[in-house]
């Protein structure tokens, strides 16, 4: 981070992140040549990175193909509360209570990523967002805005400085909305990522720490859908509070 708090991309770190994601998406494993094409880097450079990742347990090699190793999982265990733990049965129950589909979402760098979903979405084209864990820009989703609002202040400054390079208008609008998001612990999106989708996000917590977001979605039709999501969120929050008592 620079003295002004701006986070800058690093080519080697980017390549490592792309390699890990590419490998994670291929259960049968990926060759160095395939990774080089995905990353857009010389095979020799990718070979060096892959070798280092394998040596430290981030990758496993078998018959010339690389799969994700145990190290990422171990780091999550060490951290203890990196990823919110909500079972599929619990997500389905939350969806039933809310009366809407429910998405469990976390922040990954500058993106929001859906980990899982409960219930059936009335818009099937949105299902891959959760089922394939596709990244969405933080400031263009209700979950991303909520998670950014509850990120550590110093961390948030650095992230916003980086985001401002690509989407200054969204950053300016988020800064205006930030006090209200933090006060209400609710974030909304009226067509930010998709003009047909209304979404509302509430926090998932581990003690005082916000570890993720639950997102309620509905087809965007007007003010009535916003009120419907408000009522759904109220039911969900009451249900969660009752379970904690």
TrEMBL record:
Any GO BP: negative regulation of DNA-templated transcription
SUPFAM superfamilies: GAF domain-like, Winged helix' DNA-binding domain
Gene3D superfamilies: 3.30.450.40, Winged helix-like DNA-binding domain superfamily/Winged helix DNA-binding domain
Signal sequence coordinates: none
Residues of the IclR-ED domain: 64-245
Xref: Pfam families: HTH_IclR, IclR_C
Alphabetically ordered keywords of this record: DNA-binding, Transcription, Transcription regulation
Domain HTH iclR-type, residue spans: 10-70
GO molecular function, a single term: DNA binding
PANTHER family for the chain: HELIX-TURN-HELIX TRANSCRIPTIONAL REGULATOR, ICLR FAMILY (PTHR30136), HTH-TYPE TRANSCRIPTIONAL REGULATOR RV1719 (PTHR30136:SF35)
Protein name: IclR family transcriptional regulator
The species this protein was found in: Streptomyces albireticuli
């Amino acid at each position: 981070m620079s003295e002004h708090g701006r986070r800058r991309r690093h080519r080697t770190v980017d390549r490592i992140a792309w390699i890990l994601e590419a490998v994670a998406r291929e259960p049968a494993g990926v060759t160095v040549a395939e990774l080089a094409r995905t990353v857009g880097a010389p095979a020799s450079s990718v070979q060096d990175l892959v070798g280092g990742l394998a040596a430290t347990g981030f990758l496993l090699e078998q018959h010339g193909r690389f799969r994700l190793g145990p190290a990422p999982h171990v780091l999550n265990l060490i951290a203890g509360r990196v990823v919110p733990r909500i079972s599929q049965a619990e997500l389905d129950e939350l969806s039933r209570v809310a009366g809407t589909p429910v998405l469990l979402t976390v922040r990954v760098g500058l993106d929001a990523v859906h980990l899982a979903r409960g219930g059936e979405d009335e818009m099937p084209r949105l299902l891959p967002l959760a089922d394939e864990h596709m990244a969405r820009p933080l400031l263009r989703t209700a979950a991303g805005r909520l998670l950014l609002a509850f990120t550590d202040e110093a961390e948030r400054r650095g992230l916003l400085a980086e985001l401002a390079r690509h989407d200054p208008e969204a950053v300016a609008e988020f800064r205006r909305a930030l006090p209200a998001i933090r006060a209400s612990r609710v974030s909304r999106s009226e067509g930010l990522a998709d003009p047909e989708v209304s979404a509302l996000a509430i926090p998932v917590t581990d003690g005082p720490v916000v570890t993720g977001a639950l997102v309620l979605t509905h087809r965007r039709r007007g003010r009535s859908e916003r009120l419907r999501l408000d009522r759904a969120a109220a039911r969900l929050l009451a249900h969660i509070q009752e379970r904690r008592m």
